[in-house]
Amino acid sequence: MKAVQARVTGRVQGVSFRWWTEQRARELGVTGWVRNEPDGSVLLHAEGEDDAVDALVDWCRTGPPAAQVSDVAVRDDAAGGATSFETRF
Question: Which residues form the active site (predicted)?
Fold first, then answer.
């Protein structure tokens, strides 16, 4: 099990990035959350099996069709015991 925080930058707001991330996380069985940040980035916290969390982070490097991701900064994070994946506002 692992937990990470990832900040996704580029054209990632206004392109349904959070919605797509939530759908992909649920498909992978990853728990946590995703939210827009005031600086235009998207921040997410993901917990789950190593391979599933890694797959979600890899997906974030491209994102949904309308996104233009310039960077994904990932760091280890403490597990928060999330039981689902949700979009935070």
Answer: 18, 36
